[in-house]
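ok trying again, last paste got cut off:
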Amino acid sequence: MQPTRLLIAILLFIFSADIFAQEKETLTIEKIFAGDFLGTKGMQGVRWQKDNSGYTTLELSADKKGRDIVFTDALTGEKKTLVDASSLTPEGKDKPLSVYDYIWSNDESKLLIFTNTRRVWRYNTKGDYWVLDLKTKKLQQIGKSLPEATLMFAKFSPDASKVAYVSQLNIYVEDIATSKVTQLTFDGGDNIINGTFDWVYEEELDCRDGFRWSPDGTSIAYWHSDTKGTGMFSIINNLDSIYPEIIKIPYPKVGTPNSAVKVGVVPVNGGETRWFNIPGDPRNNYLPRMEFIPNSDEVMIQQLNRLQNTNTVWIGNAKTMELKTILTETDKAWVDISDDIQWLKSSRNFTWVSERDGWRHLYSVSRDGKNVSLITKGNFDVVSVNCIDEKSGYVYYIATPVNFTQRYLFRSRLDGKGEAQRVSPDLQSGTHSYSISPNARFAIHTFENHLTPPVYSMITLPDHKLIRTFETNQAAKEKYAGLGLRPKEFFRVDIGDIVLDAWMIKPADFDSTKKYPVIFHIYGEPANSTVRDSWARGGLWDQYLAQQGYIIMSVDNRGTNVPRGREWRKSIYGDIGTVVSRDQSAAAVAIEKKFSFVDAGRVGIWGWSGGGSTTLSCMFRYPEVYKTGIAVAFVSDFRLYDNIYQERYMGLPTSNAEGYKKGSAITYAGNLKGNLMLIHGTGDDNVHYQSCERLVNELVKQNKLFSMLAYPMRSHGISERENTTLHLYRSMADYWLKNLPSGGR
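nice, full thing came through this time. structure:
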């Protein structure tokens, strides 16, 4: 090549490289938290039709003014609009209802539309309901004589002639044809709750919808709560008036009285409620589940004792109010509620989830409770039950016998014979989830991993044969790849007596000959885990920090919600804070030895909620390991949190006073040596701002310097009001850069 031509080629290369550099998108906090930066797409409102031929979804209407309900044939993919947005336009209005959720009647002739919703604690469970008759196209509002947006949990009667709902803590039934409303309970309000639950039942027992239609449609069974005697927690709203507003919430902290909860049955035509006389003090036992047994007058009720180490299963006759015990589940630590109950063999047997053999498995139990047999077998946990197909004799479920960071579909015979069979493809490593048709012939399959945004497809079962792919999210994948980020790397760390799962993200310009600061993102408590091979919106916040010159890591310690068996999960019983922080600190030290590029002098840690609590425990107990920490929405003293959660894992404070003291981070606040930032919302109804203030008081007492950021009237997610999320993450990024020097050295 001639010198002139060579020079031109070099200039062209430099010019094209410069253009590429200009076009390459830079990851910023503003882009991450301004919305769905990567533009991933999904499916909304999937409901399988009862004939198993297909499913319905919510899709944007052609004029983009509302959403249609569209039927898709599972086999052919042919689409048909069952309910267009225009038919959901009330008379006299110029735009259709905004559909938050929809519910089909049993015969699929009518549709309930949930709209104009309001938040109750964490979720939008209050709003307005409308009924659409698909034959007559009549659209009518339910409960229109009641105050706007006060209806909760509306549902059709079995014959679809009526709708029952809760409004202002009372239960109503409305005849659809005549619009006649019958009020069933009258004492709701103040300290009495009918048909729904108080704060702690919703938060810790996942109880929201608090009533059930009887199979014959003649009565309703419901929960009734009396919060009198429960401690009231006050939140101060200083933002919305020149004088503070005091918001009072019945909130039972550890060792304090609960609401008194009972279950009753009332005729749908009105009349007196009859109550089940379940033994035990209603303030020291919980009634977390109640369902009618199909085609019967009986309800199944689960009762947890205060310690939550015994679950007693009752059968109650809604006609005679007679009660009998059929099953008792116990554990030295705690037992979990069984939510995967399905009645088999014409309601002669039911399925039950238990850890009685050391693993979380599905069992078959006879109606009288005398015969209990194992369905799923092996040294693995059933993560969740997806579908029980009694006709073919199989149960489909998610499990992960080998790699605890991933999730796969398996099936087992309902008679317990044979071995578990993996259904998910061997070539797709990561996280699989399924929405399976009632007859288990078809499934909407979602596959993702840390490199792959969700891919949606239709498959057949049990062969897992692909029929078609709905959405690959290829555009999001390409946009992500264009950022030039390093992928998440999974690894395992041996801390001596156990091996833990972990991952790391390195900076894009990582140099293995240099040493880098590490920021551990943790949770650590039994409610969740952080080490999962899933998309998680691309982990953009972690990636952003990595691009600032940090290695981001996460480790799942013992006690986290990982499918590694009973002993793994319950090893933290009675002393969460000690076990969790010991595992995390041991992992940090082992990682420093394992990887030469880790700078032991620049180790940070941060977490939210339980992760905030773990951050504090690690910073205070192991100040020689962690130099900088950020604790968000944390519990500093276990005595300040709600009783259902904390007592489940710690026992009662009267019998485990030392455990509460040892487990609470505030006990060790005087050991702080590094940089610490505390972040909390003053309107947090879950983990109260009180927890932050008490820790602040102790740190001041101990003459420890720290930083603090309080968000006025923000709740546990610290997301309400304008610009909050962006400000929060900008503040954390700024703190890291100023207090934990970044970059390789």
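cool. The chain is about 15% helix and 35% strand. The two ends are 41 Å apart (CA to CA).
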